[in-house]
Design goal:
A 4-stranded mixed sheet has the order 1-5-6-4. Strands 7-8-9-10 form a 4-stranded antiparallel sheet. It has a two-stranded antiparallel sheet with strand order 2-3. It contains 11 helices and 10 strands. The chain is α+β, with helices and mostly antiparallel strands and about 325 residues long.
Length: about 325
C-alpha cells in the first residue's frame, strides 16, 4: 500500500492555507517548544540492522542516530498498552465475512493481559521479517510495502520503501531546520514507518487482500485504520509535494468521498506545534497511560482550516533521479 505524495489532478487546488494564518496559529513555529525527551527503547523492528542496502541507500550509524526521536515515537506506537489494542486485532483477529455487506472484516480482539502479551511477542518476532530502505529515486508516494529479500533462513520478508526525500532531509537539510521543523519531520517520519508496518504485518500473515479493520471504516486500508485509531483522522503535510513537512501538518476526517461531499467537502485542519511536539514528551505519554489513547487525537477543530491543503508557495514535484 502507498502513502500518496501528491493529490490527484482532479483535486488540484486553486487556493490553500495562508502562511500568515499558519504562523498565527503556531502551526510553523511555537516559542515554548522543548526538545524530545523520550527515553524508551527502540523496538527491534526499527533497529539499524533492519535498514538494508540492497539496491537502495542504507543510512549510516550517524544518520540513524539523527532519526532516534522518530524511532522512539514509532516504538511507542507499537508498545504502549493504550496503542497496542489495535495491533491485538491485527495480529490475533480472524477475518470474517459480514453477512449484510459481504465485506471481509477482522474480528475484534479485546485487549487483555494475555492478548497484549501475545501481541508484543508477535511484533518482536516480526522484526526478522520487516526491512526498511530509502529509495534511490523520488517518487509520488511517501512510502510503500513491497516484497523484500529473503532472510538468512530463506523466509520471505517485506520491504518498506521510504521516499528518498526523507533521506535527503535527514542528510542535507536537517541541521538547518528549526526545532519545530525538526519535530514535525520526526513525527511524520514515524507516522509513515508505522502506517506501512500495519500493511507489512498483514502481508506476512496472509496472502489475501487486506480486510476492513472494522465494518464502519470507509476503506479496507490498514495503514489508514491505524492512523484513525491513534489520531482520530488522517495526517499529511500541508505541502503535499514534499515529505519534510516544511509548511506544517494537517489532519482531516477519514471518510468516503460520498460522505465528504454530503458534509459539504473535505476540511483540512492545520495542526499546531503544541500538539505535534507533545508526542515527544514523556509527560504526554504519562497522560495516555492515565486517560487513554484519546489523549493523542488530533484537534480536528483547529482554528486554521482550509478546503484545500496546499500552501501557495510549495516547490515542484520531485522528479526521478535517473
Amino acid at each position: 500500500m502507498q502513502q500518496k505524495l501528491s493529490m490527484d489532478a482532479d483535486d488540484e487546488p486553486t487556493e490553500g492555507f495562508d502562511r500568515s494564518d499558519l504562523q498565527a496559529a503556531n502551526v510553523l513555529e511555537y516559542k515554548s517548544i522543548k526538545p524530545c525527551d523520550l527515553t524508551n527503547p527502540i523496538h527491534p523492528i526499527f533497529h539499524h540492522s533492519n535498514f538494508i542496502r540492497s539496491n537502495f541507500v542504507r543510512p549510516s550509524r550517524q544518520i540513524y542516530k539523527r532519526i532516534t526521536p522518530a524511532l522512539r515515537l514509532a516504538s511507542l506506537f507499537i508498545t504502549n498498552d493504550e496503542c497496542l489494542g489495535w495491533w491485538c486485532t491485527l495480529l490475533l483477529g480472524q477475518v470474517k465475512t459480514d453477512q449484510t455487506t459481504q465485506k471481509q472484516v477482522l474480528k475484534a480482539v479485546t485487549p487483555t493481559p494475555s492478548s497484549l502479551r501475545k501481541t508484543r511477542q508477535a511484533l518482536i518476532e516480526h522484526a526478522d521479517y520487516v526491512k526498511f530502505a530509502f529509495s534511490t529515486k523520488k517518487h509520488d508516494h511517501f512510502a510503500e510495502t513491497i516484497d523484500g529479500p529473503c532472510n538468512v533462513d530463506e523466509d520471505p520478508t517485506t520491504l518498506i520503501r521510504l521516499h528518498r526525500g526523507f533521506l535527503d532531509s535527514i542528510v542535507d537539510e536537517y541541521s538547518s531546520f528549526s526545532l519545530c521543523h525538526q519535530l514535525r519531520f520526526q513525527f511524520f517520519f514515524a507516522l509513515n514507518l508505522v502506517h506501512e508496518l500495519a500493511h507489512s504485518v498483514y502481508w506476512l500473515l496472509s496472502d489475501g487482500e487486506e480486510p476492513h479493520f472494522a465494518i464502519d471504516e470507509p476503506l479496507a486500508e490498514l495503514g489508514a485504520s491505524w492512523e484513525y485509531s491513534v489520531f482520530g483522522g488522517k495526517i499529511q503535510p500541508i505541502n503535499l509535494k514534499t515529505v519534510s513537512a516544511d509548511s506544517g501538518l494537517m489532519a482531516y476526517e477519514w471518510q468516503t468521498e460520498e460522505a465528504s461531499d454530503a458534509a459539504g467537502g473535505k476540511v483540512f485542519c492545520a495542526l499546531p506545534m503544541e500538539y505535534i511536539s507533545s508526542f515527544f514528551s514523556r509527560k504526554r505519554w504519562e497522560l495516555v497511560e492515565i486517560f487513554g489513547i484519546g489523549q493523542l487525537n488530533a484537534p480536528m477543530e483547529a482554528a486554521c482550516k482550509s478546503y484545500y491543503p496546499l500552501t501557495t508557495d510549495h516547490p515542484d514535484l520531485y522528479e526521478d533521479d535517473e
